[in-house]
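User: Sequence recovery, please. Input:
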């Protein structure tokens, strides 16, 4: 009994000393400044308004370029200036903040955090990143894809728009640009992943292959559920009670997504086997333009089956489709909205295309380097409306220092790209759409980060820039676009991780008179 008594006292004293040590360490820490008022359990969460990027920009205006918050039980550090962002994404600090925060809803959607965009910095992430950047999204593969997969989808879109215009009164069709651009981006990525149009010999005039449409519908179910699940990420009670059956619905939709992608992998495997039987195994080139991304990964599976499992392939396919579709289509939607509100800019871009490409053929990838003004329009759109205004959240794996402040291990790092791109100290008239600010290298040295920076920066930048250049270029080359009615397009942003336009964009589209002969041939 006496022994038990001494052991209990010793444990108590030890715990007390440990507590004192931790408190002392905490006092010694120099955390970044932040709001004093914090709520029990929720911390500063109730102070954050939507959209998050403007609410956090307001906090930065009060507390400075590095702000400390408590979000639920986590430390969070918000970076709001180009200078601090540059420092954060370089050298050792870039490594120290290269993890991703883990949330229960993300775990459900990501095979236990084993997909590229949410995996922690480590061996698995490195393998996925290498496969994505070297084998799937490299400049070489993007070049190969531009002439076939991407060009084919763009031609189909031009044909559909021309038909819709021909059938419309006055030859000008009312077009839901948001939906069209989303479907085009999704379809391009689906074709890159699995070439479903070829496999299932769909009518090339259909908006999307049967598979692309089905997967799009599953994604459309999952995304709002993840939005609702954000709440239970911070309030576990809601998760345990499974309010409104969100958990059940999410699990069901994710299972269907996984089954669907596994079926796509099987179909691609079957296609490759047939090809190998026909041509002899050694004679099938897995890196040519005809091989889909799934095909490339299946060839890697042959040499390293333990690494490139079907689950690995499934995770990467779902991740790239999810990460690439909304971002690319939303950026193009913003670009078209800006052009509709600035007809002189649209005209200047059309004149550039007419004089460099001519009127006898469809613009292609080789024309893009000769269309600098189009490039300026895309850059200016990315500056004003970065699709991921807060990037993706990072997490520090060790204690580190940002801008002289202590950042404890496990802190969430949020970077306000939206605020950085609109900093009046760097950009003249930052709220205005002025593509000319990028002309003749005028913006050289000015810091922008629409694709993030450092190790976790976007691996799809090449593909996104190529797709956006080709799609916007062709839309301007073939059609005149006008607003519906006299009012300016409303540029209000919706709340969310992706910066959507609150009102889906619609416009009137009419084939340009001098392009009719080329239109017949497409
Ligand atoms: C305009 C289009 C796009 C924009 C603005 C964009 C932007 C971004 C940003 C800001 C990040 C986060 C960077 C960070 O956390 O520091 C990111 C990550 C990522 N993006 Fe993109 N992206 C675009 C298109 C694409 C495309 C087409 C793909 C692939 C098909 C893609 C795949 C990814 C992946 C896999 C990640 C996670 C990388 C990692 O965690 O290592 N993105 N993107």
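Assistant: Recovered sequence (522 residues):
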């Amino acid at each position: 009994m006496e022994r038990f008594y001494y052991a209990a006292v010793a444990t108590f004293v030890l715990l007390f000393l440990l507590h004192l040590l931790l408190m002392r360490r905490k006092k010694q820490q120099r955390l970044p400044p932040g709001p004093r008022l914090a709520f029990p359990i929720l911390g500063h969460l109730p102070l954050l308004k939507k959209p998050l990027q403007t609410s956090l920009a307001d906090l930065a205006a009060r507390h400075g370029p590095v702000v400390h918050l408590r979000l639920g039980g986590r430390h969070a550090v918000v970076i709001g200036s180009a200078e601090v962002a540059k420092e954060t994404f370089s050298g050792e600090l870039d490594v120290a903040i290269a993890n991703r925060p883990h949330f229960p809803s993300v775990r459900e959607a990501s095979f236990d955090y084993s997909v590229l965009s949410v995996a922690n910095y480590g061996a698995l992430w490195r393998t996925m990143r290498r496969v994505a950047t070297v084998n799937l999204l490299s400049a070489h593969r993007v070049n190969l894809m531009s002439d076939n997969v991407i060009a084919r989808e763009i031609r189909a879109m031009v044909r559909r728009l021309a038909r819709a215009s021909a059938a419309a009164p006055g030859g000008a069709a009312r077009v839901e640009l948001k939906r069209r651009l989303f479907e085009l981006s999704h379809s391009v990525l689906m074709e890159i992943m699995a070439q479903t149009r070829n496999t299932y010999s769909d009518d090339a005039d259909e908006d999307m292959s049967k598979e692309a449409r089905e997967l799009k519908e599953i994604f459309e179910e999952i995304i709002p559920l993840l939005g609702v699940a954000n709440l239970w990420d911070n309030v576990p009670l809601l998760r345990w009670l499974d309010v409104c059956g969100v958990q059940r619905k999410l699990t069901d939709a994710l299972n269907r997504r996984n089954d669907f992608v596994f079926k796509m992998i099987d179909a691609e495997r079957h296609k490759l086997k047939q090809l190998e039987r026909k041509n002899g195994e050694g004679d099938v080139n897995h890196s040519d333009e005809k091989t889909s991304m799934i095909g490339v990964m299946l060839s890697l599976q042959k040499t390293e089956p333990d690494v490139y499992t079907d689950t690995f392939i499934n995770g990467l396919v779902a991740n790239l489709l999810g990460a690439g579709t909304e971002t690319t289509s939303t950026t193009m939607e913003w670009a078209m909205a800006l052009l509709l509100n600035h007809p002189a800019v649209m005209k200047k871009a059309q004149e550039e295309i007419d004089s460099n490409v001519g009127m006898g053929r469809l613009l292609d990838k080789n024309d893009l380097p000769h269309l600098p003004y189009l490039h300026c329009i895309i850059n200016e759109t990315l500056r004003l409306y970065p699709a991921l205004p807060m990037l993706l959240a990072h997490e520090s794996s060790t204690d580190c220092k940002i801008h002289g402040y202590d950042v404890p291990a496990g802190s969430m790092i949020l970077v306000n790209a939206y605020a950085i791109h609109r900093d009046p100290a760097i950009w003249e008239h930052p709220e205005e759409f002025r593509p000319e600010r990028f002309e003749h290298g005028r913006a050289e040295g000015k810091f922008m980060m629409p694709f993030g920076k450092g190790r976790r920066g976007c691996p799809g930048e090449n593909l996104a820039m190529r797709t956006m250049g080709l799609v916007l270029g062709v839309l301007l080359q073939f059609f005149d676009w006008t607003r519906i009615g006299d009012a300016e397009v409303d540029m209000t942003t919706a709340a969310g991780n992706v910066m959507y336009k609150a009102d889906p964009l619609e416009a009137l589209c009419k084939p340009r008179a001098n392009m009719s002969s080329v239109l017949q041939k497409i």
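The beta strands are 66-71, 74-79, 173-176, 394-395, 400-402, 405-407, 412-415, 479-482, 506-511.
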